[in-house]
Amino acid sequence: MPVLNNRDIVSGLAFVALGTAVALYTHLNHDLGSLRSMGPGFFPFYTGLALAVVGALTIALAWGKDGRLRWQTRFGWRSVLAVLGSIAAFALLIDRLGLWPASMALTVIASMARPSFNWGASVRLGVVLGVLAWVVFILGLKMNLTPLAWSF
Amino acid sequence: MEALQAFGASWALGMEVALTWQNLWYCLVGVTLGCMVGVLPGLGSLIAISLLLPITYHLPATGALIMLAGVYFGADYGGGTCSILLGVPGHPAAAVDVLDGYPMTKQGRGGVALFMKCIASFWGSSVGIVLLMFLAPTITDLALKFSPADYCGLMLLGLLAASTVGQGSPITGVGMLLVGVLMSTVGIDVNSGAVRFDLGLVELQDGLNLLALAMGVFAVAEVVSAAAQSAPPRITQSFTLRDQLPTREDWRRSWKPMLRGSGLGAFFGALPGTSGGMATFMAYSIEARLSKHPKEFGHGAIEGIAAPEACNNAGVGTAFIPTLTLGIPGDAVMALLLAALVIQGIQPGPEVMSSHPDLFWGLIVSFWIGNLLLVVLNIPLIGVWVRLLQIPYNWLFPAIVLFTCIGVYSTHNSAFDVYTLIVYGALSCAMLLLKLDAVPLLMGFILGKPLEENFRRAMLMSRGDFSTFVSSPVAAIALALCTLILGLAMMRHFKQRSRYA
After folding, report:
1. Do B55 and A141 touch (CB under 8 A)?
2. Chain B residue nearest residue A15, CA to CA
3. Residue numbers in B near A43 (CB within 8 A)
4. What is the C-alpha separation between A92 and A105, in angstroms, rounded?
5. Strand (E) positions, B205-323?
6. A-B contacts at Cβ under 8 angstroms
7. Please, are residues A58 and A8 in contact by the beta-carbon 8 Å criterion?
């Protein structure tokens, strides 16, 4: 589809979709009330409508400019997956195994973002960052974190 | 005379608060950490404040705000260092330093550029802070008489200005703003007790986590796009004090641009949406036009450092005027600082000055102390920051991701918040692809709740009559300006279009 080559049209479609979805959802689930005494649905309903209108306007203004606005990647999928995956690993491990294993997993997976990834170097970095985090957040700031845990 | 007396009294009170050992320590920690994050390429004050916000959860209110303001100023100073020495803007507001700062570095005068940048920044901040102290009481008095309709209009004005004047396209800026406002409605509605958009998740009933959102949209995308970056070039210059001292000629050429720059910055800083570059570039082009040797601009003219830096920092000072007196931020950094106030249980607005005078004046005086500390930190200790610039990026970015995760986790000890960070991170990558600006999203999110609150109250008081927005002059002027901003944005759009067609 040539239309999807235009960034602004894609954004506009997303705005329209989100705006209408929100407006529909609030209309079905919440009391809108009146201007004089608004229900919980009033404000989100009209904000959603406004978003849909802005989205439609975005599409209208971008129409016909097709091909000029190309996708621009400042990053590769490799780094997106590595960084988001490393956060997921941290979230999975922090309550179950504690801060040290979580930061080790995060460091190693995040390091995979670079093509020059190397196991030894990133494990060493993981050890250093784990100790640093322990010193700063547990010893220094007295945050309620456990370095090592075992709970499943 | 009376104003001067009041000024003296507030200065004295502020000094008393800011000069306790505890608050001096928070200020020092804030400026140092801010500087550390700021010198790193691509990381600016927004990311610095988001990264360090969780630490302040555990501090007393005054200390927390002093530290965050210190982070802001520190990141600003640090960003300039990166621009001047590497030719890579540390953050958008420091982009102008590249124009003449980097050529000066190549001529071996990088130290002089850094020195002048510090002096100009310090001068600019002092101007901004004095104006802030003089004007704040007057504006607060006015603001106490504002009605909910007035607040509604002013907030809308601030939001629209900030989302259309930015770098992105104005119309998608408004779209992101509305998305942010919608995100703020997630959770329990305080008026009716109804739960909105919780998607069946108990964790969403308290609303979305601001910290996860801010870090997700600012830090994660930045790390993702910089992860594959190559190592920064080596810096070989020496930075002894002698290399840094400007010559008599440098001083002679710089003092007038500094004065003009700070005036311009002080004016524009108080207006919403103009921070982060626009005013600084204006100061730069004015100097280039007034100069006797315009050809030197872009090739290492010292005025090209002095004027924009004075402008930038004077603007920071006056940007605090609407933020602290009205509770209406002009940009995303100010919005985050207000959010920090709310986290501390203080409702932003004109009441802050009378109900928490120690916090209010202590904070302002600490701005000045923070700037003084930054001059000390940056001139003799510049070598430390230069070495920090040389840390390889493959060590740095996992560390940033880790500190982000720990920060988000530690606020409620909840892994759920870390999972939401993934969602926001993915969102920010999509936004990067679509060239959508994150700043309006964050501002809409922070101001969404007070906007809804004031809108409801205004409508309740006027019994559903929209004319309440026109009958009060403040609201009417604010709304007229909103229309003007939207009209100008439209015009800009069509102009751009005809140029390319």
Report:
1. yes
2. B175
3. 185, 452, 455-456
4. 10
5. none
6. 196
7. yes
What's the confidence (pLDDT) of residue B367?
Answer: 93
Q: How far apart are CA B213 and CA B417, in angstroms?
A: 9
Could you report the per-residue pLDDT of B109-121, keeping only the tens digit for each?
888 888 899 999 9
Rounded Cα distance between B320 and A73, Å, is: 36
Cβ atoms of A149 and A95 closer than 8 Å: yes
In angstroms, the CA B129 to CA A120 distance is 51
B20-43 pLDDT, tens digit per residue, is 999 999 999 999 999 988 888 777
H or E element at residue B305: helix B303-326
| DSSP assignments along B172-195, one per residue | HHHHHHHHHHHHHT-EE-TTT--E
What is the C-alpha separation between B118 and B306, in angstroms, rounded?
9
Using an 8 Å Cβ cutoff, are B426 and A3 in contact? no
CB environment B193-225: b (16+ within 10 A), e (fewer): eebbbeeeeebbeebbbbbbbbbbbbbbbbbbb
Alpha-carbon distance A75 to nearest alpha carbon in chain B (angstroms): 5
Q: Which residue of B has its CA nearest to A110?
A: B398
Choose the closest CB to A43 out of B413, B426, B452: B452
DSSP assignment of B129-177, as one string? HHHHHHHHHHHHHHHTT--HHHHHHHHHHHHHHHHHSSSS-HHHHHHHH
Q: What is the ipTM of this complex?
A: 0.92
Q: Which of A47, A49, A141 to mutate against chain B (most B CBs within 10 Å)? A: A47
